[in-house]
Design a protein that fits this description.
Helix content is 57%, strand content 3%. It is mostly helical. The protein has a domain at 15-131. InterPro entries: Sipho_Gp157 (IPR008840).
């Protein structure tokens, strides 16, 4: 069956800028940054510094800053769309891997049960040597984990950052403070 073409409003909602729509100048910048990021003789920190410097130089040189910033924003959307597509593909591949693992586990359990049932605990085949061995017995706790003696319990300590933020907004704490570094975030609409 053929799918209906999306209506005009649907197309506009889903429309993401294509790489070829962003501009040749941005493609040039992408090439420069890709060369920096592919350099094997630089550390990650050096690559970040050089890429930021190249972006800054590109923004300052030549044409209108606003136009270049708009091109960069379009490219950011393009990269975000690629990342989302790759995340979706990795989710799909993870599901397929889980299915394959479950199938292998079921077959392993079936083969183990059949070997034990028939009393054949060792088999030497062309592709594999099989042997069945007893596992150590499972551990069963007869009380709640909280009731165990201390030396049998692992305790983890994790700060509650949300609560600390709330208190810091109202008063000072000697063991915590807000960073003096100002950070910004970019919104692309």
């Amino acid at each position: 069956m053929y799918a209906l073409k999306p209506t005009e409003p649907e197309r506009k909602e889903k429309a993401l800028p294509k790489l070829w729509e962003i501009g040749s100048a941005l493609n040039e910048l992408e090439g420069i940054i890709a060369d920096i990021l592919d350099a094997e003789d630089l550390t990650e920190a050096q690559k970040d510094v050089r890429a930021a410097y190249a972006l800054n130089e590109w923004l300052q040189a030549g044409a209108n800053f606003d136009e270049k910033a708009a091109h960069v924003a379009g490219f950011i959307r393009h990269i975000e769309a690629l990342a989302e597509a790759r995340k979706e593909e990795s989710r799909r591949l993870r599901e397929l891997a889980t299915q394959a693992e479950n199938r292998a586990t079921a077959l392993r359990r079936y083969l183990t049960n059949e070997m034990v049932r028939t009393g054949r605990l060792k088999i030497e085949g062309v592709y594999a040597k099989l042997s069945v061995r007893k596992k150590p017995p499972k551990l069963i706790l007869h009380c709640a984990p909280e009731e165990l003696p201390e030396h049998f319990v692992r305790i983890t300590c994790e700060p509650c950052l949300t609560e600390i933020r709330k208190v810091l907004k109202e008063s000072e704490l000697p063991w915590a403070s807000f960073s003096s570094e100002v950070e910004f975030s970019l919104q692309i609409r």
